[in-house]
Amino acid sequence: MNDWYLPVVDSESEPFWRAAREGRFLIMCCRPCDRPFFYPRRYCPRCWSDDTEWQQVSGRGVVHTYSIVHQNPAPPFSDWVPYAVVLVDLDEGVRVMANWDRAAPLDGLAVGAQVEVIFEPVTDEISLPRFRPVSPRP
Amino acid sequence: MSQRRAVAIAGVAESDFGSVPDKTVLELHAQAAVRALADAGIDRDEIDGLCSAAGADPLHVLQLAEYLGIQPAYLDSTMVGGSSWETYVEHAVLAIEAGRCSTALLVYGSTARSDVARRYRSADAALAPRGPNQYEVPFGPTLISKYAMVARRHMHQYGTTSEQLAAIAVAMRKNASRNANAVMRDPITVADVLASRMIADPLHLLDCCLRTDGGGAVVLTSAKRARSLRKPPVWVIGMGGAASHLSMAQMEDMTVSPAVRSGAAAFADAGITPRDVDVLQVYDAFTIMVLLTLEALGFCAPGEGGPFVEDGTLAYDGALPANTDGGGLSSNHPGMRGLFLLIEAARQLRGESNAQVPDARIAVCNATGGFMSHCSTIVLAAD
Fold first, then answer.
1. Within 13 Å and on the Cβ side, how many CA atoms surround B20?
2. Average pLDDT over residues A11-27
3. Could you say which of A83, B120, B151, B351 is the most buried, measured as most Cβ atoms within 10 Å of its Cβ?
4. pLDDT tens for residues B246-276?
5. Chain A residues inside the 8 Å CB shell of B145
6. Does any CB of chain B come closer than 8 Å to the CB of residue A78?
7. Secondary structure class of B205 (helix, strand, coil)
8. What number is the average pLDDT over the span B58-63?
């Protein structure tokens, strides 16, 4: 299968992708700064402390911006156009990139839209985050 | 007004550009170098500095020196994308001022257009999903979609419209109409831009630069040598650089170009303000890149780039003539275009442009590399 685009998991990222397989979104937090950051890395990008830890977040946030891609010659994306790339500000204070859930209508996508994450299993190893409109609360 | 006049641009040239399937990448470098040295009236034996980067090969600058048959003491292959060449100017000026180099050749060549036709490369080469890229590449963010996300945010925050972005492309095409070498010269309208197909919403085909073959070269030398040459020196009077991010999620404010810092540094270095600028050369890979740069350099307030570019402001006969050769949107764009900004700016300050701005004395070049990732600003002055 054409998996060139799938993450090459390394020692810094393994916990993130393991959690993603379990449907959990992890970010990192710097203990001295008491502030979250993303993407995950060993050293805090603000203070270079290695006193950092994983933190599970809600997966809820707000669309900061997005683009609907109409042209991408590289499979599998060539089969998915038009698809949306979104940058989401998670409620916990970090910005992440992902796709808009292809099962959700594109016309629900807007800057400021309230969204939640789901994880789509792509291989046995990798599940990728997708965002969709927040489902109505029970 | 200006302080720094120790180094000048002495020669500039483009190689053949547009569609050049019969020349190799290094041949385009050499053709541009020969032409720029001829323009300067400098012999190749005087070149003791070589500055160049190519897309993929990390040892490119050594291969290029070998191909050209020179063994320069001073080399620079800093790679920050399209702004690499403005960065080379900053570094080479410091090296020449310090006496570590006397005459530097900045040179570029690319067969980006023909390589796609030959299927040597994809039209939209993707990054590998390793390291930090593993948090973005799996979602298929094309280069254009990254800039489209910037445009979308600017629209949301400030009410900027697709019509306003289109006005930038229209002005570049008007400028290109004066340049016999420009690849796209037929006039276009805002409606034409909006009717062109969507590539990455909200950016249309005509919001995007061309993909061409081509190369260019710039010769920098000391004040003393520059004054002895047949063409008037074009003085480097201000320089500034600024890094921002590489992952889109790491761009602190998606409406602010790093030119806000590189420009402030370069303008302070030169002792000028935006009001002093007669002609602007701004990297225009996408219309939104121009708009953010105008705001960042202080030609208009943050958020006011949209209204600012309406009504032909950037055309050669407008209030702020920009990319008077037609820019990457209409003249040429062989992958990393920073060098071409310097070439057209030097021509303006020598009075040699096809779309000459009357009595142009101060030119600013602002190049952007990566994905709004890095900016380098160079201020040039006529002799």
1. 26
2. 98
3. B151
4. 999 999 999 999 999 999 999 999 999 999 9
5. 67, 69, 85
6. no
7. helix
8. 92
pLDDT category at B119 given cuts 50, 70, 90 is confident
Rg of the Cα atoms in chain A: 16
Ordered domains of chain B (ranges, CATH): 7-116+209-382 (3.40.47.10)
**Scanning every residue of chain A, which has its alpha carbon at the shortest distance from the alpha carbon of B130?**
A8
* Angstrom distance (rounded) from CA B6 to CA B220: 10
* CATH code, residues A14-133: 2.40.50.840
A residues 97..116 contacting B (CB < 8 A): 97-99, 111-112
Q: Are A73 and B122 a contacting pair at CB < 8 A?
A: yes
Pair of tokens at residue B221: 């030398």
**DSSP string covering B313-333:** TTSTTSSS-B-TT-HHHHT--
Cβ distance A8 to B129 less than 8 Å, yes or no, reads: yes
The pTM of this model reads 0.96
Amino acid, res. A101: D
Strand B279-282 relative to strand B103-110, pairing: unpaired
Boundaries of every domain in chain A: 14-133
Q: What is the pLDDT of residues B151-208, one digit of tens each?
A: 999 999 999 999 999 999 999 999 999 999 999 999 999 999 999 999 999 999 999 9
Rounded Cα distance between B210 and A26, Å, is: 40
